[in-house]
Input
Amino acid sequence: MVNSETKVLVVEDEPLLRMAAVDILEDAGFLVEEAGSGREALRVLQAVPGLHVLFTDIHMPGEPDGLALAHQTTKNFPATGIVIVSGHKVLLAHEMPLGALFLAKPYEAHHVVSYVRKVVRFV
Amino acid sequence: MQSGAKQPAPPASNRERFLEAVLASATDYAIIAMDVHGLVTSWNEGAHRILGWTEAEVIGRPASVFFTELDCQDGVLQREMRAALDQGRGTDERWHLQKGGSAFWANGEMMPLLDADGAHFGFLKILRDHTEQKLAAEKSRADAEFLRGVLASSADCIKILDLDARLVFMSEGGQQVMEVSDFNAVAGCPWPDFWRQAGNAAAKKAVETAKAGGVGQFQGMADTFAGTPKWWDVQVTPILGADGQPERLLAVSRDITEAKRAEEQARLLSDELQHRVKNTMAMVQAIVRQSLRTATTPQAAQKAIDQRLAAMGRAHALLMRDRWTTSTLRSVVDCALDLHDDGAGRFRIDGPDVRLNAQAAMSLALLLHELATNATKYGALSTQEGWVEIDWAAECEASQDAKALRLDLTWRELGGPPVIPPAQRGFGSRLIERGLASALEGNAVIRFLNEGVSCHVTALIKGSPD
Output
């Protein structure tokens, strides 16, 4: 399901962590967009058509936070797979959009890649 | 029984013998006859037993002999006699004296003695020794007063409920903590109805437990009668009747609002600490990964990791000084450049000292560290003659998110070797231009000018204090 056209949006307010996630995914062959807040992510979602995966942190300043962003993305872009990450809390399946996966921080690079691959639906 | 001086002794009849027997056997009662002047004319065995004097010792003496000196001065006996004449009886409830001077509490009455024609010829005084009852009543009153004092001074809200859980009594201290201005306004109200949400069910359950003879306990939220929301720790116990069955309920509520707040604060702090530790570990992980990714040798990677973690650690320490809330821009600049400052005045710093929030402070510290590291390796700080000018302007800006600070900061390297633009962006440049700039809600532009590297940062820092 994954090929070099698979596009991932990384949303993380902490720049170092965002860079790390972007590099991990780029190294794995994904095309990566990035955003530092939920609001910026919404702009990217509108501007870049056909994003396959949203990879977002939960805890971010401003509105929406990562969880609200995930729900909005599922509603508006149902083909987009979701990976939610957090070092703050552990989400249960019923708290996340259907089909989304949760990854706890700090994470290992191979987990980032495998989780993103698992949620990719259509390429 | 002897007769008085003014009344000649009539022949003893069966009736008189009967009366004498009654008087003699009524040993719990002092039955004393007086003439119209209050002189004792008759004194039964009960009077002897209670007051101590024999009949022979008091016959003909004023009955005031067993009144206290104060009552004598006050004319108490005379008033009793007057009341007996005017109202048919005079009551006597006071301390009296026994023969030895001991006091005892008497309870009695005085009545006028009238002959067959209705002529007044004396008085009859009947009294009992009620000292024990008096002392018991005083003790009971003192006990009740003590209990009232205890209840009033207790900060707990102590209530009595009937078996339908309706409010019957609330202690004074309880009325204060529950902000009750008039207990009558709440008397009879169903006590469980005072509790919010789950507290209501818990209160009902506690009542049922206590009615069954157990101890009902719960914690819940209830507003005071003035509407102040409070947390309470509650215990409901039965008050048993003589038959051993609960006849009322005792409900004691302790205000634990402050403790709950402290508990919540501790929980939030714990959550926050956990978040920060995890975030810090994730940042360390990212720094290591990025440094290894871009370093040309293991030694260079190690050095880069050491320096970046040290920069992050110093920024942490700076923020911890202010409990991870704010820091001044000047202290962030000093902290970030400290390791690169050789004391030769190579940093020329100028700008107003404004306060930054924690995230902006951390981002700027890392940004300045990356610029200084690059300057030390390749730029103005790599020679003896070079220097760096860092200046900024800051102004408050109206924002939809309330207070915000518009920051305009310039890093300018001068006097160093000619600059050779890098073939590709390194970690520091990427971090500054892509990462930190967006973290600061602005942008950062690095220019590799021939005379020296410059970096211009504009940022909108929200939530910055004055």
Remarks:
- Residues 257-294 of chain B form the longest helix (38 residues).
- The mean pLDDT of chain B is 86.
